[in-house]
Write a structure and sequence with these properties.
homotetramer; 435 residues; alpha/beta; Rossmann fold; Argininosuccinate synthetase, chain A, domain 2; 14 helices; elongated; ATP binding (chains A, B, C, D)
């Protein structure tokens, strides 16, 4: 039943265009196609190498003219073009587990790209299997994390797949040493060339975040240029009035957002997340400029804006601490550290990540309730919280109520905790005496 | 030599006042005295119980009329009064290790009270030993963390000490059931009574932070009242122009702060930290409203403002990631988690905390360089960084330079990382076939 | 359905004896009764203090004349006596999770007492609730772990219970300063006195292990005396022929044991465990002499013999590594460390232990197969293993088969792993040059 | 001073033989030469490819006719031959840190090969730098761990080195598909061919252990054949009388071994370790048969015998627990897990391993004292221990002495630890009521 529904949904989502196939090809490649210069050149180049090419373009919320991209791929000779709206499953199956985990890489990065990559690769593999393609290809560079995230998911879900990674093939990267070579190639092969000049950095966008890196940002001392950010308002241009939200969680996942002032309400996953993006973006929330450690062992500089994800990060952290036992929290925190690293390194589709996701999900059983917060000038301020399953006990903690608690017990607790410390001191003194 | 210097310093710092001692006392108590109603009553009550009382008041940066407090203690019958300026050692010996560690409790609390407590208790124990006092006492409640932090340090440094904790003694807490009882007692014993009404919450202040809890804040849904904060400007009243700072680190510790605009420079620990407090406070940096798990097993609600500490937290995190190897960082992070918990729970003076501090300090050997950041409307924005010992290699990471790096290697790296994932899939498929 | 079955089983198991109840008592106490001198005196003493006493004696496999103990308790004035055979649930619900976890405390102790304590306390609490008793009591000392394990389970399952721990009550421990005082009291109160002299150490036995401590063993340099061990043959008297077993696991739990030589087979949990005890005991397996860290912060010396548990520890470790993914194993290992500590410290009935047990159980999904091993002269030698869900791939690992594996990939893998190391060296050399 | 001594020592150790060098070579390769068929063929093959070859043979305690190996290498055309006795530094600089750490991989493997590899590679790199060789080479296969351990150390210490790994080069591995091809090649190139038939498994030996794998052992169910082990007596042929030893530790490292019976004493590192090997070997100590997870992601089956290392593992564990604070122990244990993994994966010469070694060494400051143990029929039995810096306090732990300890404190300790558990139960009951 569930399966059927899914199929219907996805047949509605998929817009497939057939084109003439070549004879005697080396085989069929499903290419992760973005519509941009790089993957357009790769599409043509793959055909040049003797492959039939199926273009695959996933909509994970990036700004894109999907219709135009589809036409373009078709015009460049793609045998078929699949454009798939994965936004709902991106939010529900990838971002939500990230929210449950409070996933964060190296204490700062909310993993927007890392979450999208396995979602896209999974879609691409599905098409490759469905179309009987032995090959998949992508335009990720040879120094980054994305090649790894992309390929590990492909190998995990389709172990016999062959991967063509042009930017790691000498015959490709020696031919296209810079953007000019690509432009030249494009002109010679009827590939439409972008009319606007390329920004002096590279970008990756999806509905969770935009990342900026490379180019002028490679100098770690260079400040990010004004006007770079696209999802968030500059804090100094942000409104002078905060928005106050109430976010309701069930099972560690947001199920409803209410704007206290204007009474706006969202309760479906995608809509809710987009609304948080809107509010966060309006108030300039979620910008970071960091140095990070790539899986591949080099440090890189990345700038990110994650408006809605940042709001959820703070809200979930708060409701979790309110409802989760202290010691469970500690264990869950260590699992989250592992999850974040697995995610960053591209191991979403690994036995260890499946295991950790299972455990984290279990930990969220009672993470429910409402968090009130205000969003203002780049900040998320937690204002209050309530929950039917809170472990917070006002009578227990109150300074004015003794309740069931006997303060004398604390004395014994401390004395017993001091046993070790006093023994240690006894020994140290003995040593000091000797020395 | 060093010892002598210290003694001179501390004799300069200490302002001792003698008073008449009682005959046939139960012994001498060094009381952690704050000058407020509670510890004033405790002082008198202890005398009533037959102890001689030495008042000990540490200056860790709280707003206080130390002269008046001294006179008051004397007037109440303290045998001696010690007022000690510990601000420099608080910053250098307690806050700095916290900065090196990126110490943070439960992902949010920067541990301002936890850092001050062992500093104060150490001072008090020193006096107790010096004065031959067998007892120490304090005014911490029986439900909180401070009693533990205070007493564990005392037991660790002075294993034979006897601790009098009035709020855990039935003869005390049954006599003083509320503030009114204290007021009554004060009136009857010539203890000056505060003229301003008590705020409907309790506060703990030192130069690192102010914490607010209890009273109306005990309802976790109640928003913190306007006008409560004392170290930080409300973000909506904060200046419309950012301050841009450059903070220089050596050995993981800030050694210089420069205000890029007005060229203000600080390079001694205390001065530098106070300056960061000033800037952070002016821009409303470092407010949090959290639920936290006390050591004692109950959840409480705490509100904190940590202006300078928050700036340093972000700046240190940045320079550390810039200069520290990725895998060292991971291990150091797990040590920091332990350190933060030890600190929060009161185990500063424990063998495990000494061990962890040693290891963390070792990890900071090459954590040096300069971080540029702007402080604005409650936010700290990292703008750039530079370091003589950075492991960031621009040529290595650049998209435009191949350098020493062979992109083909990444293919092998990924394939080998996929070995396990493909095996797992192989097995899963076998199972699925069977089922 | 399940519930009903359980009730029938337990009504069959329980042998209840009623006695006359006192009027105007302080209330009813369920006492963990062992039949020995200590708890017999406690029983009488509790009655003396004005309580009605219900004796509770759990059979967790210790050598005991349960009938005699029952009569004795009755004779001493117990209102009721419950004797319950918990051996099956001890194995299935406590030892099995320990086996799944490879639970081991401080790398050596297999936690035999720690596993039994919550099993017994759970039974006792069930009776207390059923009988409407507000009190429970036990004979554990005030310096050990057992008091904690016992009481934490009681508080967790019956939060309003009052616990009477005589060895922590001054009115009791000051009255009974040594064994002689107990003997004297026994004689005066008609309590039968043991005729055999007490061994110069104390013992705790259940079907998993026997522990020995105290008395002459308190000197950590004293070698354990000959003849002390009761479950295991001295290795020098053990047979000169090994026993060879095959143990089959499902879900990380043993489901069948076969003796290869004599074809003995066991496949129910209790029977299987007792058989492993027999074989392990015969060959002197599972003796350790250790120093351990009690929860209470002191070091103690303990000697343990755990014959069957030791065999299972080795067998399970082997089948687990054979069938579990490497990275899952690492995460599971860190969970097991936590589980072992929770268990040792008495937190079986805590949210964190429930969480960890859930996660560990999940990790055991594919831990199945057969392990062959021989047991000989105190050793367990793993001989071989097989499994339908092994991740071991002989073709992949074979030196003689290339298979799907391209050795060239390893070169890329190594080069990428070396990126960091070379950068580190680059920086170190720069520093060395400068210095 | 220290440097000079070292140089003298190493010039004594090194036996260098010059041979005629070729003209117009591709460069010089330092080959890790074992004297066996494989590396002899590689030596000749490298010359064939146009390299000048320096043979490097490290003595880490393996059984080998070093003189013969040297002559053979010379005869095969090596330009120079270096034979270096690294046994002392292997023990002191590699095995000792392993002992301090209680290093063990996946709970069972004592890392004998992992410890030797960086020791050998370091020596080889030293020669390569000294001789101005740009290349190093080795005979490790493309599926194993040793290639990684070897090469990571080379890259770390000599970042510009080029590594020739013939078993990963298609031109080599496609030419030598099996042992017959090597034999054929050997005959054609005047390489002496082994006269004894090869054992149906492969072996790696050093003074710490011998490992056995491959061949008939690749079937994980096949029992290890009788007569395979070379360092240890079969337990059933082991003596019927134990040896009783006393091992003294300082700084976590053994400094003296005394045989209680015959009064044999050793106190230098190498001698002491060889003596423990002798005793352990005589009694059949330290055999394991395991499945392990290679770094490269595949499971393999390995059989190991580590006689002296196993004795030290048990003895060190005991003295460590006796002298180290409980909480320090836990942190150190987590560092050891990391260390063991780093070691196994070949990261000895990494910043993270240097950091962890530093921390572990720090933790050993007070790990000193004497452990008495008996070695018998494959077992190591700890009998007793003593230490000037033990944290074991007999009076504190004794059941017969109250000492400074107030048992009432334990009641408070337990009650406070139960606060969380009771709250959890309170919430669970509420839920159960609702449901």
């Amino acid at each position: 039943m569930h399966l059927i529904l899914t199929l219907i949904t996805s047949s509605r989502r998929l817009k497939v265009l057939h084109s003439n196939s070549m004879s005697q090809s080396k085989g069929t490649v499903v290419l992760a196609y973005s519509g941009g210069l790089d993957t357009s050149c790769i599409l043509v180049w793959l055909k040049e190498q003797g492959y039939e090419v199926i273009a695959y373009l996933a909509n994970v919320g990036q700004e894109e003219d999907f219709e135009a991209a589809q036409k373009k791929a078709h015009a460049l000779g793609a045998k078929k073009v699949f454009i798939e709206d994965l936004r709902k499953e991106f939010v529900e199956e990838f971002i939500w587990p990230g929210v449950q985990a409070n996933a964060i890489y190296e204490d700062r990065y909310l993993l927007g790209t890392s979450l999208a990559r396995p979602c896209i690769a999974r879609g691409q593999v599905k098409i490759a299997k469905q179309e009987g393609a032995q090959f998949v290809s992508h335009g990720a560079t040879g120094k980054g994390n994305d090649q790894i995230r992309f390929e590990l998911t492909c190998y995990a879900l389709y172990p016999d797949v062959k991967i063509i990674s042009p930017w790691r093939l000498p015959e490709f990267f020696n031919r296209f040493l810079g953007r000019n070579d690509l432009m030249e190639y494009a002109k010679n092969h009827g590939i439409p060339v972008p009319v606007t000049p390329k920004s002096p950095w590279s970008m990756d966008a999806n509905l969770m975040h935009i990342s900026y890196e490379s180019g002028i940002l490679e100098n770690p001392k260079n400040q990010a240029p004004a006007g770079m950010y696209q999802m968030t308002t500059d804090p100094d241009k942000a409104p002078n009035t905060p928005d106050t939200l109430e976010i309701e969680f069930k099972n560690g996942v947001p199920v409803k957002v209410t704007n206290i002032h204007d009474k706006t309400t969202c309760d479906s996953a995608l809509e809710l997340f987009l609304y948080l993006n809107k509010i966060g973006g309006k108030h300039g929330v979620g910008r970071i400029d960091i140095i990070e450690n790539r899986f591949i062992g080099m440090k890189s500089r990345g700038i990110y804006e994650t408006p809605g994800g940042t709001i959820l990060f703070h809200a979930h952290m708060d409701i979790e601490t309110f409802t989760m036992d202290k010691e469970v929290r500690k264990i869950k925190q260590s699992l989250s550290l592992k999850f974040s690293e697995q995610l960053y390194n591209g191991f979403w589709d690994s036995p260890e990540c499946e295991f950790v996701r299972h455990c984290i999900n279990k930990s969220q059983e009672y993470v429910q309730g409402k968090v009130q917060l205000s969003v203002y000038k780049g900040n998320v301020y937690i204002l209050g919280r309530e929950s039917p399953s809170s472990l917070y006990n006002r009578d227990l903690v109150s300074m004015n109520v003794q309740g069931d608690y006997d303060p004398c017990d604390a004395g014994g607790f401390i004395k017993i905790n001091a046993v070790r410390l006093r023994e240690h001191h006894r020994l140290q003194s003995k040593k000091d005496c000797k020395a």
